[in-house]
Amino acid sequence: MAAESGKNWVLTVTAQTPTNIAVIKYWGKRDEDLILPINDSISVTLDPDHLCTTTSVAVSPAFIHDRMWLNGKEVSLSGGRYQNCLRELRSRASDVEDEQKGIKITKKDWEKMHVHIVSYNNFPTAAGLASSAAGLACLVFSLAKLMNVRDDHSRLSAIARQGSGSACRSLYGGFVKWIMGKEENGSDSIAVQLADEKHWDDLVIIIAVVSSRQKETSSTSGMKDTVETSMLIEHRAKEVVPKRIIQMEEAIKNRDFPAFARLTCADTICVLLIDLIKIKAFTFQDNQLRRKMESFQGTPQVAYTFDAGPNAVLISHNRKAAALLLQRLLFYFPPNPDADLNSYVIGDKTILKDAGIQNMNDIETLPPPPEIRDNNPTQKYRGDVSYFICTRPGRGPVVLTDESRSLINPETGLPK
Ligand SMILES: Nc1ncnc2c1ncn2[C@@H]1O[C@H](COP(=O)(O)OP(=O)(O)OP(=O)(O)O)[C@@H](O)[C@H]1O
Ligand SMILES: C[C@@](O)(CCOP(=O)(O)OP(=O)(O)O)CC(=O)O
Question: Which residues are in the Mvd1 C-terminal domain (predicted)?
């Protein structure tokens, strides 16, 4: 067992991991336990300054079993997915030594030592904003650091994948591809970085959070139903996605926004149409705004996409287009009278400034968008959007070395 037995030392690591939004979606599994997809997917990692998971992990000889706290509440780690990740990580752990603290853990010790995991998402959990992606990636990344797992990010992505498919893409910043792989054991089903966040850093992403309540249907069960009941899903995976993946990689490489936007919208609509559970998202999407945005100027100004819920993710090709988009969004979706601007538009607030909006009155007095040519009163959707998040492509996981950012009390090994 670890050195200085009898001494209740606690060793901790804290990490921060981004979420990601797929522009070519993962939808459907060929293996439910190993979480192996039926198609490749591509995502944009979102800036963790705005949406992220922070996870602190600890090991101590005093811990009697593995425990996890999520957003302030203790949750069970008994689920197969968590257990698969923990088992994989333990089997790859290496010796850890901290001479200052007199700690020595051998590779073998990890089999019987227990960990505490304390995690916090700075955005709604299980509400269609990919909390499982950031959450499971952070769990795997932070434990890998604690356990001195020497695998590279691609190998770690294959472990995170077993926690939640989309989590494998959150091991990298920028633009990421999850290669579906062919092997039965999933060893080649890994994420790779296509380009880092600086490659195309003028993209602005605005998320319209329509509902931050827990979704009625999880992505896991939604895609399972689709695979079991839809004949179209196989056609999408075999015929449609492979071509789109090539085109999307090209669009990202060349920063070709019109191609990027067309492919993103086409893919989300394809999944929406195949998957009837998304009827709510479709209702939101099929509103005036999208049609107006599409008819506004010849080339696409905005890409839109949806995950398994009604929240819309809108990607603008630069800050100018984003400011115009935000003006239109706030014109059509003004907040309820009791809202305050600071909590109605969160994330990168400089886009608000670019849009010339400083207070609630500026929203109420926004002129109708120029594409409204007739003088008919325009329907507004006050209160239909809970809030907007402005963000951009962001970096991959990082270790937070500042002790004050740790979520674990270093004396007790329990949440602070
Ligand atoms: N920080 C975290 N640490 C560990 N597990 C987490 C964390 N955040 C979320 N999870 C797990 O992910 C589950 C939510 O996943 P789910 O796929 O239902 O929603 P989502 O990821 O928020 O939405 P979507 O995948 O549709 O965008 C939670 O119930 C929890 O088990
Ligand atoms: C619509 C999606 O966001 C689906 C994400 O599904 P999850 O990764 O949450 O599902 P599990 O692998 O069952 O945990 C599309 C995507 O992110 O590619």
Answer: 205-399
Cβ of 26 closer than 6 Å to ligand 2, yes or no, is yes
Q: Please check the confidence at residue 173 and state whether its pLDDT lies above 70.
A: yes
Tokens coding 383: 């209160």
Q: Determine the atom of ligand 1 nearest the C-alpha atom of 53.
A: 1
The third-level CATH classification (topology) of the domain covering 11-197+401-405 is Ribosomal Protein S5; domain 2 (3.30.230)
Q: Answer yes or no: is the C-beta of 389 below 6 A from any ligand 2 atom.
A: no
Pick the CATH number of 204-391 from 3.40.50.720, 3.30.70.890, 3.90.850.10, 3.40.50.1010: 3.30.70.890
Q: What is the pLDDT of residues 339-376, one digit of tens each?
A: 999 999 999 999 999 999 999 999 999 988 876 666 56
Phi, psi of 323 (to 5 degrees): -65, -40
Which of 306, 309, 312 has the alpha carbon at shortest distance from 332? 312
| Phi, psi of 202, deg, nearest 5 | -90, 0
Assign 280 a pLDDT band (cuts: 50, 70, 90).
very low
Instruction: Give the 3-state secondary structure of 45-78.
Output: EECCCCCEEEEEEEECCCCCCCEEEECCEEECCC
SS3 127: coil
| d(C-alpha 341, C-alpha 344), whole Å | 5
307 lines ligand 1 (CB under 6 A): yes
The domain locations on the chain are: 11-197+401-405, 204-391
User: What integer pLDDT is reported at residue 226 of this predicted model?
Assistant: 82
Task: Give every strand in the sheet of 73-75, ordered side by side.
Answer: 73-75, 67-70, 115-121, 52-59, 11-18, 398-399
User: DSSP strand E in 138-239: where?
Assistant: 175-178, 191-195, 204-209
Nearest CA to ligand 1 atom 4: 135
- Backbone φ and ψ of 132, nearest 5°: -65, -30
Ligand 2 atom at minimal distance to the Cα of residue 161: 12
- Ligand 2 nearest atom to the CA of residue 26, by list position: 18
Say if ligand 1 is within 6 A of residue 132 CB: yes
